[in-house]
Specification:
rod-shaped; alpha+beta; 4 strands; 4-stranded antiparallel beta sheet
């Protein structure tokens, strides 16, 4: 029978953890759909895509119509009207390299969008874990009040029997007042953090947030080197630098192409009236034009190329600096993860020992009215260990979430 009850309890606990993870996933989905800052970054990417379509096309062709108010007489007849059409053609590859500039710029905007989404998800997770810790702190404090009230009842019995000092009741009242004040502060903090959390999701600030009774247990499955390798390949900030580098390489290529000649192709059609003087009289004239525009002032194009090369170096330097910063953050967060793991083991053990000591001291006080100070002291220690245990659990999941964010997950 006990085995069945234990099995049912385990299944209920697991189901609660699954529900808690599903709730967080739903919050992440809501944030992705509703967050206005994320929408703004995405629209910047969409606007950049529209720019690509604008730059990869030829200039508008030129069409000119002219009418001779005073016809120009020629041997074939008077010129009455003239139509000209022309088109400029840049050097081969110029439009493609210009389009590449804006294509890579759009890709950089998309990486910025993915970075913003990844950062938003981390903010939602860390805020959620913080809310869990605050709620558990309230629950633990309420449980501690229940324990203190039980101790107070024992103290009243011992006082009435003349086996304890009346000061024991007063000391208990002091501890109860402190706890009630702490709970009021925690509730205020929970309210503020709830509004902040709902604002991340861009929903009603007073919406109820589902907080689980327990947090699921996650562990980092990757080695430090695997995490660093993933960061190098998948971090969206670093990817943005890569796209910007490609943009400046395309800009250098475009600068070289822009310094090449531009070809003009055109056609003139002239309407000629009939003067009856020759067989060719009244036949319209057709002229095909070919022109070339040669850039003579080379300083401009050399400067554009040099500018693109310098920006390439700037981008590489920035990427290297950002990589170093990210590696430092990973080292720090891994240290925090390990510390959280150690604290979980420590405070689990300390809580168990404090509970045993509390039972012993409570039994002794009930029996002979002694060690009341020790009873209050161990009760306060149990409260602290319980709070620290929940804080360590929240810190561990927050560290994992931050490492996943840096890895571009």
């Amino acid at each position: 029978m006990k085995t069945k009850i234990r099995l049912i309890a385990i299944l209920l606990f697991i189901s609660q953890l699954v529900i808690a993870q599903e709730s967080l996933n739903q919050y992440l989905e809501t944030a992705a759909n509703n967050n206005t800052a994320l929408k703004s970054v995405f629209n910047e990417y969409m606007a950049a895509l529209e720019k690509v379509a604008q730059v990869g096309v030829l200039q508008n062709p030129q069409l000119v119509f002219g009418y001779f108010i005073l016809p120009v007489e020629t041997k074939n007849g008077p010129q009455q009207a003239k139509i000209s059409a022309s088109q400029l053609f840049p050097w081969i590859g110029t439009l493609k390299s210009k389009e590449d500039i804006f294509t890579h710029s759009a890709k950089a905007k998309y990486s910025a969008f993915e970075e913003a989404k990844s950062k938003l998800f981390f903010d939602v997770k860390s805020s959620y874990f913080n809310l869990f810790y605050i709620q558990k702190s309230i629950d633990i404090a309420l449980e501690n009040i229940r324990i203190l009230k039980s101790i107070k009842n024992i103290a009243l019995i011992k006082i009435s029997a003349g086996k304890a000092s009346a000061a024991d009741e007063i000391k208990t009242e002091i501890e109860l007042a402190n706890l009630e004040n702490s709970i009021a502060l925690l509730k205020d903090n929970f309210s503020v953090k709830s509004i902040s959390f709902n604002n991340l999701l861009n929903i009603d600030k007073n919406s109820t947030i589902l907080i689980p009774d327990s947090l699921w247990i996650n562990n980092l499955s990757l080695s430090k080197q695997a995490i660093l390798d993933s960061m190098q390949l998948n971090n969206y900030q670093l990817q943005s630098f890569d796209h910007n580098l490609e943009k400046f390489l395309s800009q250098e290529k475009f600068s070289k192409k822009e310094g090449k000649p531009t070809i003009l192709l055109g056609i003139d059609y002239t309407s000629i009236g009939d003067n009856g003087l020759s067989e060719q009289s009244g036949k319209d004239a057709l002229l095909i034009k070919i022109g070339i525009s040669v850039p003579l002032y080379r300083k401009k194009y050399s400067a554009l190329q040099n500018e693109a090369v310098l920006y390439q170096q700037i981008t590489l330097n920035k990427k290297e600096n950002k990589t170093n910063m990210l590696e430092t953050l990973i080292e720090q967060t891994l240290s925090e993860y390990k510390d959280a793991n150690r604290r979980i083991k420590l405070f689990q053990k300390q809580s168990q020992l404090a509970k045993k000591a509390l039972k012993i001291l409570e039994a002794e006080y009930s029996s002979n009215g002694k060690n009341f100070e020790e009873l209050l002291k161990i009760n306060k220690s149990l409260l602290q260990y319980s709070l620290e245990l929940q804080k360590a659990k929240a810190d561990k999941l927050t560290a994992i979430a931050f490492i996943e964010y840096l890895m571009g997950k």
